[in-house]
Design brief:
- This protein has 116 residues and is mainly alpha-helical.
- The chain has one domain.
- It is 66% helix and 3% strand.
- Strands 1-2 form a two-stranded antiparallel sheet.
- Helix 1 runs antiparallel to helix 4 and helix 2 packs across helix 3.
- The longest helix is centred in the C-terminal third of the chain and has 28 residues.
- The chain is elongated and about 70 Å long.
Length: 116
């Protein structure tokens, strides 16, 4: 981390910029996520890949064989969706918060050791 957060207001400002994956829903306590797609057809292929991957998993468990063309492509499609959903911005903020807590704990330990 290059800069230390010194105040709660600084933390709130960074949080507003960082927590971007979950967007508030009209229902209290629920959120939406956005999955950027280029077209309806891309969205349909994503959905089909999820279904195909689920069928592949079920077939492996049941020892039956569903005819799915290009199962590797279906798996790749699902993994690409997962990559788009990983909240990297939030992870950066969590690292900063974690660093703040560690620094605060160290300061408290030093203060406690001086008192002893």
């Amino acid at each position: 981390m290059t800069s230390e957060i010194k105040t709660l207001e600084e933390l709130k400002g960074i949080a507003r910029k960082s927590f971007v994956v979950l967007q508030p829903n009209d229902r209290k306590g629920q959120y939406n996520i956005t999955l950027p797609v280029k077209s309806y057809i891309e969205l349909h292929f994503f959905i089909l890949d999820i279904v195909r991957l689920s069928l592949i998993a079920l077939d492996a468990e049941q020892e039956s064989v569903t005819t799915i063309k290009n199962p590797c492509g279906a798996i790749r499609g699902v993994l690409e969706i997962v990559l788009r959903l990983v909240p990297l911005e939030e992870a950066e903020l969590l690292d900063k918060i974690h660093e703040m807590i560690r620094n605060d704990d160290q300061k408290q330990d030093e203060t406690t050791n001086l008192k002893e």
